[in-house]
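ugh ok fine here u go
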Amino acid sequence: MMNQNTKKLFVLIKGERMQDIKKEFREFLKNSKENTQITQSTQSTQNISSLREEEKGLYIAVKYNQSANDDLMDLIKKYNIPSVLKPEDLHTTLIYSRKYAEINELDDNLGDKEIVAYPKGLEVFETFDKKRALIIKLDCNYLEDRHKYLMDKYELTYDYPEYIPHITLSYDIGDMILPRNVEFPKFFRISSEYQEELNIEKKYK
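structure:
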């Protein structure tokens, strides 16, 4: 039998223990909530990152060496082509994909490999904003094979039914009548490949 003092002590100890248990339980709930929030935040960040990857798309193109750029600018001046690109902006698109992919195999130094594209003729096409763009169509196995290789390996997308290698000279030639019997350089030498995040508002073509 417990005397009165023993009972009081027992109740006191029991009460303190219950307070400890309640405190521990509250800490447990708090930690569980924080861990849940961290997990949800991590998942949310991953989802946003994944969404951004899908949204940003991918653009890959080739540049030409200085000699090719000089030849192109001479051609532009000779035939008075209006609203032309700057020499450093002349390029040929390889990939225009609304799907993004990490690609680490592009070659930024093709100058020593003597890869060339042969001009086939001038052609006008209508841009998205209903203007007349002027291009030089090209004959180049490297560009066609490279486009197919990257498309297939990385399962990329392309907005057009077929890939036509070309160099855009102007995005807006107005009412210009195309010259006949254009004298082209024999070829244009490719110097490098490059990539950037796709910007659908930018004029690449």
